[in-house]
Amino acid sequence: MDPHGARCRLHDGKTQLMQSIRRRLLLPLVGLYAIGWLATAIYAYYQTQHEVRELFDEELVLIGNTLHALIKHEILENEQPLLPLEYHPRLTETQHAIAFQIVRDGKVISSSSELSQDLNPPPGLATITANGAQWRVFTMADKKADLRIHILEPLRIRHELSDSITLSLVMPLLIVMPGLLLLSWLIIGDALRPLRRVSRIVETRSPQDLSPIDSHDVPGEIQTLTNAINRLLARLDDALARERRFTADAAHELRTPIAALKAQAGVASRARNADERRNALQQIEMGVERSSRLIEQMLTLARLEPESNESLDMQPVRLCPLIESCIAALYPAALEKDIDLGLQRCGCRQTRLQGNEMAINILLCNIIGNAIRYTPANGRIDIRTELAEHHIILEVADNGPGIPAAQRQRVQERFYRAEEHRAIQGSGLGLSIVARIADLHRARIDLSDTSPEGGLTFRVLFPRY
Known about the structure:
- This protein is an alpha+beta fold.
- The chain has helices at about 5-80, 155-190, 195-205, 220-270, 275-305, 320-335, 355-375, 430-440, and strands at about 100-105, 105-110, 125-130, 135-140, 145-155, 315-320, 340-345, 350-355, 380-385, 390-400, 445-450, 455-465.
- Helix 4 (about 220-270) packs antiparallel against helix 5 (about 275-305) and helix 7 runs antiparallel to helix 8 (about 430-440).
């Protein structure tokens, strides 16, 4: 494998990741900008229309009232139109024309040239259609003088003004939007800089370096990622340390039996008669059995390591049938030493504990097998169970040499064996396996003397649920 090619692919993947995050952040911003601009345009348009309508309506009312005040007395006194039909004044100097029509006794006495028909809108403000166009009209009705004044303005003027004002408001936002998007692109890129830094740190690291990533100046959102990576690195370091320890322990513990096997094989090859050869082969067979048991226990302990048992299946388990099964399996070994082995009392036959049946079976067989191994010939091993308020108690009591109180904690360590017991065949792993299984089941181990004369009582207190 080309490491440079792999590094290039990693760099390309990192670049694509950064661009993807940028796109994912930028595209919603573009959508939000567009929606915001559209909402602003719609709001500005309707708000402008509202303001223009109110302003121009007030202007129509003001002109109508002013015109009424100017012509009322003249019409009542002279009974003649103040303005001839052919006179069409522009009442304002703005760009839009105000049209008018004055009606008295049902007859038009004055009107703007834009109006070629009589109007009859209700008093007040209204919208009408006249001469093919829409108008906004204010009608002033004077019943005493039988006078009506209509002041009109084309709606087209209002619409054009509303459009012009709205465009002048929203067009600057549309013009600055590319600049905002570019600024957002740069800001997002700057915000992703710590992520690129963490990526470079991980990329340039050697496979042997599992130290935590420095995250003191990393933003909180990315710190969550770096903390997760650090936890993963810690678990990997732990797993590799366990593997190294397992390899070292295996090499150390298997060195002696393999050397013994090699020596016995040499003896067998140099044997001068059949008896010597048979004796050497028997020693080889015993050595193979010891090595096989050691390897089996080491593998069992490795399977029970914390990171290897996440999927340990916990089910309701009956303890007494498992005890009887272990006694049956180990009874031949007890019989060879004339040891009285039996289940004295099972006080939890109807009760189940929450656990893994295979693991509890290994725990029972290790405790009972350990008791058989250290109990002298013609000894006694009593097994009993009982129910307490919060526990299911397993008790295995023997009349062997026991364990001094100062060493009872250490015997649960891997490969530890007391000096006075080194002559007895064993690997030093049995009780460490028991301790690990007990820990997995949240059980507590208690070691005590069977009697003042000696012996060991091994108790395991399983929690009741």
